[in-house]
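PROTOCOL LOG
Step 1. Enter all chains and additional molecules of the complex.
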Amino acid sequence: MDFRKRDNVSVDCVIFGLDSYGLNILLRNRKLNMFNDDFPVIDDWVIAGGPVIISKTLGETADLIFKSITGLNAFNRIQFHTYGNPSRLKSEKDLLWIRSQGLKRQTMTIAYYYTQPKESIVLKNSDFKWFPLKSLPDLGFDHKRIINDAHEDLKQKIMVDPVIFDLMPVKFTLNELQLAFESILEVELDNRNFRKKVLNKAYIVPLNQTKKGSAKKPSKLYVFSRDVYDKVTETDYIINI
Amino acid sequence: MDFRKRDNVSVDCVIFGLDSYGLNILLRNRKLNMFNDDFPVIDDWVIAGGPVIISKTLGETADLIFKSITGLNAFNRIQFHTYGNPSRLKSEKDLLWIRSQGLKRQTMTIAYYYTQPKESIVLKNSDFKWFPLKSLPDLGFDHKRIINDAHEDLKQKIMVDPVIFDLMPVKFTLNELQLAFESILEVELDNRNFRKKVLNKAYIVPLNQTKKGSAKKPSKLYVFSRDVYDKVTETDYIINI
DNA sequence: ACAAAAGTGTTGTCGATACACCCATGG
DNA sequence: CCATGGGTGTATCGACAACACTTTTGT
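Step 2. Run joint prediction.
Step 3. Record the structure below.
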C-alpha cells in the first residue's frame, strides 16, 4: 500500500444531513490565531477535505475522510464536479491559511457529496458543526460555490434516482418524506396528490407500525425496498421502450 | 503564464459528432512499432487527451486540446466525470505505451465531452478518425468506459438542456432533429407527435427557406434561438419518454 | 372536548399516445 | 407519372393539479 499523498490534488466532501427543518451541511471550523487567542485572524468554516492518497481510488479517499468525521461507513457517495481553476484559492485569507498549514497550494479538488439523516451522525470532534443550508456561516475557499453545486446536483438526482431515501431514517412517515422533497427541492407539494403518487410505488412498503410523535394522531410508517425498486424500474424500462 | 504541466493529472476529451447515421466519436490512432513497421506492438485507438497546464483552468486545458484537433473554438464543453482509480491503467499494452512515450503514469483524468455536427470538423491530422458510436474499434486505456459514461451523461442532459442543438447544423429540418433524438437516446419517436411538440416551442423558429435534399419534396428549415430559450424556459422539456 | 396532525376522493384539464393518408417535388 | 421523403389531424387515455373536510389520538 502506498500511502503517499498527491500534494496538488485534494478531495472535498459535502456532507448533507436531513432533519425535520431541512437540509444541513456539516462544516469544520477553520481558525487561525496569530497573536491573540481572542482575536483569530481567520475564523470561518470549510467543508471536509484532504489530499488524494496515491494508492487509493478517489472515492476511497473521500470515504476515508467521511469516515474519519462521522465514524460511518459510506455507501452513498456521489461525485459531482472537479474544480481546477488555478485562481480559485486566491483570497488573502486562503493563502495565509495554506501557508500557515505548510500545505502546497492545492488548486484542484474532486468534489463529492454524501447524504444521510442528520441524526445518524454522532459528532466526536467539536471542530465540526451542522449548519442549515439556508443559513450558512462565512465559508472559506470557494466552498460556498461547491456547496451550491452539490445542492443543484442533488436536486436533479432526486427526481430520477432514489437518493431521497438515503436522507431518510429507515422507517419514515409519508409526511416526513414529503417534507424531505419539499425542503430539498424548495417547492411545496399537495399532500393528497403526493400520497396518491407515493402509495402507487410498490417499493415504498407500509409497515404495521405507527410512529407516536409528540402527542397527536400516530402516523403510519413505511420503508423503502431497494430490491423491489431495482426490479420495478427494470421492468418499467422494458415496457416503455 | 505558467505553462508547466501537472505530470500526474490529465484531461480527456470525448468528441461527439452527429451525422445522419447517428453519433460518432473522434479517435486518435495509437500505434507503436518496436521491431517492424508492419507489425506494430500496439495499434488501437484512444480519445484525445493531454496533461493539465498549471496556469489554466481544467476547462481551458480541455479547450486547447479540442482546438488543436479540430481548429474550432469550443463553446459547449461538458465536464462529466473524474477518474482516479490507481489501477485503471494496468494492462501490459497501456504500461508499455506509457513507458515508450516517456510519460509518467497518469492515473487521474478529468473527462469532458464536446458536441457538434460531424461535418463542422475538418480533420487536418490523419491520426484522427471518426467512428460510429455503435461500432467502435479496439480502444486503449479505459476509454471504452469513458465513452460510455459520456454517452450516458449526454442522454440525460439532452432531456433537460438544449444540448441537442450543439449537435445540429444551424439550420435543420424537423426530421433531422427527430433523427438526432432517436439516435442519441436509442429510441423511436412518433413523427406526428414529435412535430406537434416541437412546433409548440417558441425557441424553435421556422425560416422561409427549404432544404432541397437529394431529390424529393423540399423540407422546411428551422433554427434554434437561444435568446428565446433562455427567456421561455424554466421547465419546458422537448422530450419526455 | 379540544387541539393538532394524519389521512382521504372527485373533478377538470392538459399533455401523451396511437394511428394512416395526402402532398410536393425531382427524376 | 411515380418514387420518395415531407407533412398533417383526431380520438382516447392517463397523469397531474386543484381543492376541504373527517379521523384519530393525547392532553
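Step 4. Note key features.
Helices of chain B lie at 58-70, 92-100, 143-158, 174-185, 191-199, 226-232.
The beta strands of chain B are 5-19, 22-32, 42-46, 48-53, 78-83, 108-117, 128-132, 204-211, 219-224.
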